[in-house]
Amino acid sequence: MSATELYPQATALTTASEKAPLLLRGEDMTVWRGGRKIFQNVNVELRRGCVLLLTGPNGCGKTSLLRALVGALPAASGDVTRHTPRSPAFMPADDMLWQGSETVSVALRFWADLSGGNAASALAQTGLAGLSDRPLNQLSTGQKRRLSLARLLVQPADIWLLDEPLVGLDTAGRQMLAAVLMAHLQAGGAAVIASHEALPSLAGVEITTLALASTP
Description:
The chain is α/β, with parallel strands linked by helices. Helices cover 28% and strands 25% of the residues. Strand 6, helix 6 and strand 7 (190-194) form a beta-alpha-beta unit. The protein is globular and about 45 Å long.
């Protein structure tokens, strides 16, 4: 039986026309976790101005693939090549960073100081400027999600890796996410997004979907 028959998600993807500069390529990627093969022979390409959407059931490897692309989870085989000197910016599915009694502005300035980003601008873009003095432990789920997105904005990166970015966001929050994502793509960035939900409208953006399947 072939690898593709065993692992239906093993496929090659190109996420833009050949004219768009290549930002990231993953070739023949295989990842194990906890003694279990999560996926095998996955190939991805990501080009400027484009989105790769990862879908599939829980446990199929969406988060593992994101972590492999950012370098936080080593692949058992295969290669990941980035054609940008900037490290990818990763937005995890949880918001565990935002705990404790420090304020929103203090917490985000910590990350901005690490990368030279503008915390005030990021708070304004994500609709959090009015909450800059609010303690983290008083934020709602949606507000923490916005703050996680603000953390991306203070980290200069061409590649965004977003894990379930829509969770906890209301209609206004989803519109904000779409606006921030569009600005990133129009500036020449790209994104890989793992989501159980349909993305908000991104007019004119080429979106390629990789549907991961559970492994045997």
